[in-house]
Specification:
Number of strands: 4
Distance between the termini: 23 Å
Number of helices: 11
Order of helices and strands: HHHHEEHHHHEEHHH
Shape: elongated
């Protein structure tokens, strides 16, 4: 590519494209993908909402411990009584009491099942947060490369405009000296007007893509760094799709959530069956009562204390068949959770295979477009030379220019799609982490 640009026939095109790319090049304040991802993680509302939900679920899981831990309470009271022991006489007295009581569950299978469900709630919350994080990585990367693709499109359109303008001027000069017809000028003018319309659309598309990126990362004017030229795309490793699918079965957040839901459903059966089982609690209390001015039986002040320690046993006998029907309900819900788990595994496997072959296809497209770019460049050179010697007409040169710039745009987009596709593949099999952005960062202009 560099050798071809040194040819005199291609010098104006190379200068035009270089000038436009320089104008669109990121400034010294440009940010790489990792920097913008960190900004998005601190700003994005969807991710912040997922994190808050994760923290709330952790506290909810901790609440399940209360059923197996001891409880204690303190109660106190003051009362004043007045009565007439005989007609015409009155007597009043004050009573003060306080009781400290405590209870420790010894055998409550339903409470223990709730405690185990709380542990599964933690697993579920972690998987949900990981899924939200992976989604943010992909959304940030997509917005990042959308801006780069829009910048490339605008750069290529402007370079094409410069090339078409040069061809239009050449056609007008040739018409003035009588070496070409008015048709060449009109064709070049029509192509130039078309490129102007494409430039307007490209400018608006870039503006919209930048707004979307700014809103995601919380910056007023985010400037993503472009890919280095030439770009060596990373290989797809491991190269076996079955390896990717096997990893997903143990790591994917969706599968882990479904597995946690299944374990929770099994524990719910234990809770329902506990409706038939007895409960046993250790109880203890210490209380005191003080009667000032006596009581209804005596006029002397008194003070008493009571200490009790015991076991509280409860055995359900009949609850109107509610427990039996609750057990049947939980069994059905367990079967549903098991089916949901199987469905999640199948869905993840399908998405992983689809993403894997999508990346392979994208890599093949990049290689094909690289070859097409070289071929289109050679075709443009040949058409320009043919136009100069009179064996090609102006429309041939214009078509060759249009094909070259379209190929360049398609190649740039294909490269971005391969990089994003690699992230989507890791998201599909559940192994995507922020560290995966470091590889893409190494391909960006430093």
């Amino acid at each position: 590519m560099t050798t071809l640009l040194k040819k005199p026939a291609l010098l104006p095109l190379a200068l035009a494209l270089g000038t436009v790319l320089a104008a669109l090049a990121p400034s010294v304040q440009a940010q790489n993908l990792v920097e913008l991802y960190r900004s998005a993680r601190d700003y994005d509302a969807a991710y912040q909402s997922a994190r808050s939900l994760y923290e709330a679920n952790l506290y909810r899981a901790e609440q399940a411990k209360a059923g197996i831990l001891p409880t204690a309470g303190l109660s106190s009271g003051v009362s004043r009584s007045q009565f007439e022991p005989t007609p015409g006489t009155e007597r009043s007295f004050t009573s003060q009491s306080a009781t400290l009581s405590a209870s420790q569950p010894l055998y409550r299978p339903g409470n223990w099942a709730s405690y185990e469900q709380g542990k599964q709630q933690v697993v579920l919350s972690q998987a949900q947060l990981e899924a939200a994080e992976q989604d943010l990585i992909v959304r940030t990367s997509q917005a990042y490369f959308d801006v780069l693709a829009a910048q490339d499109t605008l750069a290529f359109v402007r370079a094409q405009k410069e090339a078409v303008a040069e061809q239009l001027a050449s056609a007008k000069r040739n018409f003035e000296v009588g070496t070409s017809t008015i048709t060449d000028s009109r064709e070049a003018q029509a192509r130039y007007d078309l490129v102007i319309a494409q430039e307007i659309a490209a400018e608006n598309d870039l503006r919209v893509k930048k707004i979307a990126l700014d809103q995601l990362v919380g910056k007023a004017d985010a400037q993503p760094r472009g890919l280095t030229v030439p770009t060596a795309l990373p290989p797809l490793l491991p190269a076996d799709v079955n390896t990717w699918v096997q990893q997903s079965e143990a790591l994917h957040p969706t599968i882990r959530q479904a597995q946690a839901n299944l374990e929770t459903a099994k524990l719910e059966i234990n809770k329902a069956e506990a409706g038939h089982k007895p409960t046993l609690d250790l109880t203890a209390s210490y209380g005191g009562q003080r009667n000032r001015n006596g009581n209804i039986f005596t006029m002397q002040s008194s003070r008493t204390t009571t200490t009790t320690v015991g076991l509280a046993f409860n055995l359900p006998l009949f609850a109107g068949f509610a427990t039996q029907n609750r057990i049947r309900e939980t069994l059905s819900l367990e079967e549903k959770a098991r089916t949901d788990l199987e469905g999640a595994k199948r869905g993840v496997a399908l998405n992983t295979r689809t993403a894997f072959f999508g990346v392979l296809s994208g890599q093949g497209q990049v290689k094909a477009l690289e070859a097409a770019e070289a071929s289109s460049q050679s075709a443009l050179d040949a058409n320009k030379l043919g136009y100069q010697v009179g064996v090609r007409i102006n429309i041939d040169v214009l078509n060759a220019q249009s094909q070259l710039f379209q190929t360049k745009r398609d190649l740039a987009v294909a490269r971005y799609n391969v990089l994003i596709g690699g992230l989507r593949l890791r998201q599909a099999n559940g192994t995507l982490t922020p560290e995966d952005l470091l590889l893409i960062n190494s391909l960006l202009v430093q």
